[in-house]
Design goal:
The chain has 413 residues and is an alpha/beta fold. 29% of the residues lie in helices and 20% in strands. The chain has two domains: 15-327, Glycosidases (TIM Barrel), CATH 3.20.20; 331-409, Immunoglobulin-like (Sandwich). This is 4F2 cell-surface antigen heavy chain-like protein. One of its GO terms (cellular component) is apical plasma membrane. Residues 12-321 form the Glycosyl hydrolase family 13 catalytic domain.
């Protein structure tokens, strides 16, 4: 939501007036929702000047927001508003250091519940609150009040959600799991997978442990996954270049909701400006554009017409996840972790089953999947490399360095 660039055209993504086109982009990518903002007035670390119900005029106005919401409704895209109070803050944290166990003047003047109701009345589909761990560690009772408030706005045809976000860009996995175990939020967002790009061998075993432990802590609550984001920057700047596509396969095939940062669909990178890393550079839609440093074209239009582009891989994964029941809400089961390879399965009732094979290493690896509950062969649904074969023997198959492979096979009685 911050204005971090120069001209009007460059700032299009940061301004409400440009978000109508963003809705079109998201719909074209077969994605179902977007998080916008924060939009409200927030002088850094200044509670008295923070106005949770007023849009910062540099970012737009309420009429522009309504146009965004109308466009999103037409396209079936849910809009979540980030309402983290002190999002521009440096010293006082996302919640101005308020102790939610006490009715202090700061606690009273925040008026967060009035703001929740105000934005939900505007037609927002849900709220995202950063620094939610501060609230959870301060008062779970207050968090429960907020959850009930948002739930009271839900109707059969328009459910509302409250997403709590742990915005630490390098969170301790054990800390995230401890929050998950006591969370009653609709969804707890975090950069739990942030460390995966830096894993050392055996990467497959370590990734399996991270994910299995997360699922155990989440129990039956809805999971969410992210690597890139406002706090961490872009995926292409966070993970090795040869694993970027694999990460998209991972995010879209794990159970729960994947969150991706704008521009990750084309491999956009953070840029350095005067010794400062800009994690919100402008996205280039039209050709011509430069490349990302590896010779890969990074304009949206260039990538749309290239069958092997990051954009079209992303779109294919998003489309699959939006229509295949096993990927949408199916069961999850880790099957194999050997060296740098990790394999898991998604299945639901009598729907098509999916095997996800990930090689996080730098060498081609043979994978053997011989189990009584697996068929002898499976069909290639999608690969991060250009495979010529469409049917693979599960008894012995080659998985390329950095390859993410999605296989399917039918239910059998």
């Amino acid at each position: 939501g911050e204005r971090k660039c120069g001209g009007e055209r460059e700032c299009e993504l940061s301004l409400l007036s440009g978000l109508v086109r963003t809705v079109e982009d998201i719909s074209g990518l077969k994605m179902k929702g977007m998080v916008i903002g924060p939009l409200h007035r927030n002088p850094p670390d200044h509670l008295e000047g923070t106005r949770l119900t007023e849009i910062n005029p540099e970012l737009g106005d309420h009429q522009q927001l309504q146009r965004v919401l109308e466009a999103a409704k037409r396209k079936g895209v849910k809009v979540i508003l980030d309402l983290t109070p002190n999002y521009n803050g440096v010293e006082k944290g996302p919640w101005f250091g308020i102790d939610f166990n006490q009715e202090t003047p700061d606690r009273v003047s925040l008026k967060e519940k009035e703001a929740f109701g105000f934005w939900l009345d505007q037609g927002i589909d849900g709220l995202r609150l950063g620094g939610i761990d501060h609230v959870m560690n301060s008062s779970m009772a207050v968090l429960s009040e907020w959850i009930n408030l948002v739930n009271n706005y839900s109707t059969g045809d328009k459910p509302r959600v409250l997403i709590g976000a742990v915005t630490d860009p390098n969170p301790d996995p054990g800390y995230i799991r401890s929050l998950l175990e006591r969370s009653n939020l609709d969804m707890l967002f975090s950069y739990y997978l942030r460390s995966v790009g830096n894993l050392t061998a055996p990467r497959g075993l370590k990734l399996r442990s991270l994910i299995d432990d997360f699922m155990l802590s989440a129990n039956h609550s809805w999971a969410s996954w992210a690597v890139g984001g406002r706090e961490t920057g872009h995926l292409a700047s966070l993970v090795p270049e040869n694993l970027q596509r694999l990460f998209h396969v991972l995010l879209f095939t794990l159970p729960g909701t994947p969150f991706t940062y704008y521009g990750d669909e084309i491999g956009l990178k953070d840029i350095e400006e005067g010794g400062i890393i800009n994690k919100a550079p402008p996205i280039q839609r039209e050709s011509p554009a430069g490349d990302n440093g590896e010779g890969v074209k990074i304009s949206v239009e260039d990538q749309k017409v290239s069958k092997t582009s990051m954009y079209n891989l992303f779109k294919a994964l998003s489309s699959l996840r939006s229509k295949e029941r096993s990927l949408m809400f199916g069961d999850f089961e880790s099957l194999l972790s050997e060296g740098d390879v990790y394999v898991y399965r998604r299945l639901w009732d009598q729907s098509m089953r999916f095997l996800v094979l990930l090689n996080l290493g730098e060498q081609e690896t043979e994978v053997r999947l011989s189990r009584p509950d697996l068929p002898s062969t499976a069909t290639v649904e999608l690969s991060t490399t250009q495979r010529a074969d469409t049917q693979l023997s599960l008894a012995s198959l080659k998985l390329g360095a950095g390859e993410g492979l999605l296989l399917r096979y039918p239910y059998t009685a």
